[in-house]
Amino acid sequence: MSDALSAADDSKHIEELYKYVERLNEATDKSQNLKDYQGIIDMAKMSIKAKQLAAQFIPRFFKFFPSLSGSAIDTHLDLIEVEELGVRVQAIRGLPLFCKDTPEHIAKIVDILGQLLVSDEFVERDAVHKALMSLLTQDVKASLTGLFKHIGCVDEPSSDETIREKVLSFIRDKVFPIKAELLKPQDEMERHITDLIKKSLEDVTGAEFRMFMDFLKSLSIFGEKAPPERMKELIGIIEGQADLDAQFNVADADHIDRLISCVYMALPFVVRGASSSKFLNYLNKHIIPVFDKLPEERKLDLLKALAEISPYTTPQDSRQILPNVVQLLKKYMPRKKTGEEMNFTYVECLLYTFHHLAHKVPNATNSLCGYKIVTGQPSDRLGEDFSELNKDFTERLSNVEELTRATMKKLTQGMAEHNKAMAAAKSDEAKDSIKTQKQNTTTGLRTCNNILAMTKPLHSKTPSFIGDKSINLSWKEATKPSVPATTTATGGKRPITAANGSGNVASKKGRGAGGLPNQLVNRALEGLSHGGRSGTRGRGRGWGGRGRGRGFR
């Protein structure tokens, strides 16, 4: 009996609702039918079917009744929270209609939709995506501003981490790929989203920072024809994330990760003419002097970063950095056979850096290495005796060459053994293992060849330093730029091979002769949603996948 009454009530409610809708449709001046619109709002509190229909009609007639706007929106938002999925989805689909003729509501509706991105129901989440895209198409500026409020910044942090990550994923997956269609007028909207991103970068993880920087690089305002000040702007953003104004603490692994990763991210802009002085000065003042105290897994990353940035240094920066580089070079180029095996990749990096710095300020090597280079400047220091320095440096070069040739012989023999093993291998697993060993050996041989090519001209009293692209760094040849050779879990250690280990080619202990130059970046920045927001100090978000402890200052 009760079911029959309930069905009758449902039928009555729906019939009344359709009468309200019919009168509104027929009315020339709909604003006079206030009671009919109030009736639709009231029906949203009745049966499931009535709620679903109310969710369809409340937004449709919303613009005609400004005096009921608060009540209409609040009632509609109540429908988004009901248990019935069909009602919720219909209510979500109707949200953009509130803004069609009343754009002042966009910020509020985008805020609501951003919160709804956390839904576990696919059909509901899909409705949210479509509603957001509809609003972005209608008013991209207001909609983006509303979305970025969920990402937060230092002054206005996001209150819900889950919502924040869902909004970030939506922007990455749905907004960024269609930027050419959405960001119009192009220059104005690209500048607007750049400003929103810059504000958000005050409080991001390493992965999020990399994502945003990749997007900024893709904008036309930062394209190939962009003026120098645009490159300076991007470098400034990266410098800010590198914490170059912070007091350096060698025990702060998070800062070291951030710094080296940022150097790699700055490289494309340095190549295009942006200054690297601030990075280089910080490395020279704080990092290189304590190189021995750095975590072992970061030393090679730093040396590779130095090598890759060295061709683009200014003469002034080169003169300042060269003394510390020579000191490191001497440390890793043994003067005599000591029984310790040389770190070949370290030597390759440092020789490459040395050549490119010395090429810009050749006479600086007179007092550092005992050369006799004449430029006519007081800095030639030709009246001083640096012969002992030259003897020491030359002996180190000769010893390095001897060790390198011996290692090349071992690697060549090893390659022959790998070839035999490959011919005898039966399983795919065995063949893959041997193939990896061959690749590592090839990289080791490249490292050795590079070392010999760079030591040869340095035996002269007036050497010609290499300042062109004739030397291809071993890891640059081994893989295409920015494509990881192997995938490493966040916070994990890289496998010990000649290709990415400690550079100890002869013994194959530790790091070897190669490794991707931005392997640290890929490790530190992989995964948008790794780690939780602890906010123990700094801005709350750490660099890499180990949680967000330290954060960006």
TrEMBL record:
One of its GO terms (molecular function) is mRNA binding. Transmembrane segments: none annotated. Keywords: Apoptosis. This is Apoptosis inhibitor 5. Pfam families: API5. It comes from Quercus rubra. GO terms for cellular component: nucleus. The keyword Lipoprotein does not apply. Residues 482-553 are annotated as: Disordered.
